[in-house]
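Researcher: Before we compare anything, I want clean individual predictions. No alignment, no superposition, just each chain on its own. First chain goes here; please echo the sequence and then give the structure tokens.
Model: Echoing the first chain and its structure:
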Amino acid sequence: MGRTEYWYDDRAPRPNSLIPACNMLVARDDGAILLQRRRDTGQWALPGGAMDIGESPAECAVRECAEETGIVAEPVGLLGVYSPPRHVVAYSDGEIRQAYEVTVLGRPVGGRPTINAEADGVRWVMPDDLGEFDVHPSMRRQIDHYLTGAHPHVD
């Protein structure tokens, strides 16, 4: 399914749904941050996705991280809750979603970077190298909050 993200864009269509999603910002002891390159947009992002009924935000973040990157991570904190009304995601099936993301902090405890149906690239990226990657502004904002210590954050 195709997707188009609108970030503070006056051309964004009006949302018709709001679905809780969870991301995980996983950092190694050396400071490297885990990123995946999304197959649907080609942009680099934190691993994450929609919550399943019966899951906690931490469980969702752990599951999504493992599914999308091959890395098993342990939750260690909360980065924030991100739901700016002007971050809209339009899907090719007609769903137009206002983003709602709980971003959990994690540390790696196993696995290895692995591509899959959702991600055609998985990398550990040092903070000084982030400028070399096409990271969507919503993800870059979350990463910057982590790097500057501006968390927990609530939109």
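Researcher: Okay. Second chain, same rules.
Model: Second chain and its structure:
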Amino acid sequence: MTTLIIICAVLLLTGVYLSWTAGRLDRLHTRIDAARAALDAQLLRRASVAQELATSGVFDPAASMVLYQAAHAARQAEPDHREVAESELSQALRAVFGEPGQVTAVREAPGGAEAVAELGAAVRRVPMARRFHNDGVRAARALHRHRKVRWFRLAGHAAFPLAFEMDDEPPAALAARAADPGAARGA
């Protein structure tokens, strides 16, 4: 009789543990979905502001074209090509805002100060959003690799989560302006 009670207790504890693990995995997938939505929103914001700046007339035609095409490609990219398109937008932003004088010229244009501040904020938020997403992916992948998750199929039919890898280094001139609070206020 005691053997039966011990077996039932072990099975009950194992079931509770497996249920807790499955719940944890589900929460991680929910966190990844939310982080991906936040990342998509920040990427869209960055591309929109870049596209708006490219059409504002404050840049020379070559810089406007480079920035506009990269921003448009990032906004229209298919999911399979999104990382490449976003990396190309980062490179275009670094090329256009390669020197602090360019930021100053944009700030002096009508509405330029707000546009630079908005672009600076968007450029700063993209790496943070990407980091949150990739941290969730890393945690879910680690849990997916455990034997108990594979043996008992605790992940169900959830796809193996993929990290979002892109070049998100901000332009030095925008990063310097963002770090200097006086510059953001126009002081």
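Researcher: What stands out in the second chain?
Model: DSSP finds eight helices and no strands in the chain. Additionally, The two ends are 82 Å apart (CA to CA).
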